[in-house]
Design a protein that fits this description.
Oligomer: single chain
CATH topology: TIM Barrel
Helix content: 40-55%
Strand order of the largest sheet: 5-4-3-2-1-9
CATH superfamily: Aldolase class I
Distance between the termini: 26 Å
Structural class: alpha/beta
CATH class: Alpha Beta
CATH architecture: Alpha-Beta Barrel
Length: 211
């Protein structure tokens, strides 16, 4: 799948910080059951890579990706672990759109966006969205960069996600609120599924806004 196809599978990509590998599979199943198949497992904990491997192998219907990918070596490592996409907080020096797994690079400025285009990218994560201008920045990017599509992450919540998704150059949003660290520690899988179902419902509002 291309990164564009992945971004359009669901309106929200849960950003997951998992501390215990044993939580990976039940968490993934809870999210898929709620209608969110695209899962970004961050490499912010020592268990991250093992969680990607377990989810990719054991969670039916999941499209498992890796977040916090900051080097070429990590991009290769997550691909080897079964990740079907990678997300970076910024542009990785020397990395192109072609690679071992599709990459969604983070940008925060027009200069970074232009550098991303030069490297062959057209899909970006605006990060941190709440610091980098949020909806105003995405609106401003639309005219000079009509081919760009964004997944804003950072400060995105159930409250403001509908406003982001109503923008024509936003394909999806990312956030931690659906499966917070606290919820995962508590193994509140029913709560995760309920929040995932609520977030998945934003697809209808997004479709209505695009008509």
């Amino acid at each position: 799948m291309t990164i564009d196809e992945i971004m359009r599978l669901a309106p929200v990509i849960p950003v997951l910080i998992i501390e215990d590998e044993a939580d990976a599979v039940p968490l993934g199943r809870a999210l898929v059951a709620g209608g969110l198949p695209v899962l970004e497992v961050t490499l912010r904990t020592p268990a991250g890579l093992a969680c990607i491997r377990r989810m990719a192998a054991e969670v039916e219907g999941a499209v498992v990706g890796a977040g916090t990918v900051t080097t070429r070596a990590l991009r290769q490592a997550v691909a080897d672990a079964g990740a079907r996409f990678a997300v970076s907080p910024g542009l990785i020096e020397g990395e192109k759109a072609d690679g071992p797994t599709p990459l969604l690079p983070g940008i925060a400025t027009a200069t970074e966006l232009m550098a991303g285009f030069a490297a062959g990218f057209e899909r970006f994560k605006l990060f941190p969205a709440n610091v980098a201008g949020g909806m105003d920045a995405i609106k401003a990017f639309q005219s000079p960069f009509p081919d760009a599509r964004f997944c804003p992450t950072g400060g995105v919540s159930m409250k403001n996600a509908p406003d982001y998704l109503a923008l024509p150059n936003v394909a999806c949003v990312g956030g931690t609120w659906i499966a917070s660290v606290e919820a995962v520690r508590a193994r509140d899988w029913d709560g995760v599924t309920a929040r995932a179902r609520e977030a998945a419902g934003l697809a209808k509002a997004q479709a209505a806004a695009s008509r």
